[in-house]
Each structure stands twice: as C-alpha cells, then as structure tokens.
Amino acid sequence: MSNPSISITVKLFAAYQEAYGTSELVLEFPNGTPVKAVCDRLISDRPELKQFRDITRYGINLIFVEPDTPLQNGDEVVLIPPVSGG
Q1: Residues 39, 23: contact at Cβ < 8 Å?
Q2: Cα separation of the two ends of the chain
Q3: Residue 3: is its pLDDT beyond 90?
Q4: What is the DSSP track for 45-73?
Q5: Residue 85, in any domain of the structure
Q6: Domain presence at residue 46
Q7: Dihedral of CA 56/60/63/67: which sign?
Q8: What integer best gives the mean pLDDT of the chain?
Q9: What is the number of domains present in the chain?
Q10: Residue 45 belongs to domain with CATH number
Q11: What are 19-55's pLDDT values in tens digits?
C-alpha cells in the first residue's frame, strides 16, 4: 500500500519566522505524518530553534491540536513558540 506525500502550508511566527526570514513555508511529508514532525524538520534545518521544541504549540487550520495529530493534504499548520511581551 502506498503512502503518498501531502503538501502543507506552515505559518511561521516569532522565533521561527526570525530564523527562516519568512512568514510561510510549503513542505511535503508522507501522508499521516504527525504535526510535531513539522517542528522536527524546522529544527533540523535551523538548530538554533531546538530550545523551542518542547514548548511550541501546534495549530492545524486555526485549531490548536496535540503534537501527534496527523497531517492531511492541504492543511495549514501554525507553530507558536512562547512570545515574550515588550
């Protein structure tokens, strides 16, 4: 049984946006990948984000979700690290 890839849009905020220099990425993952894998991929590309791995909140299509929620094709994912006020 094949496991086709899916395409998702990732909205970046705060430290993630600063690290990537953009507010949005389009990434492909195998179907059924958990949303936490998005964070893992971003951290593997930008190791300075590792400090946020355990404290980032996840949203899919404007709804907060658990880290193991599976992604579906076309999902819009947000990664929200803690934001310091100022």
Answers
A1: no
A2: 51
A3: no
A4: H-GGGGGGGGG-EEEETTEEE-TTPBP-T
A5: no
A6: yes
A7: negative
A8: 93
A9: 1
A10: 3.10.20.30
A11: 999 999 999 999 999 999 999 999 999 999 999 999 9
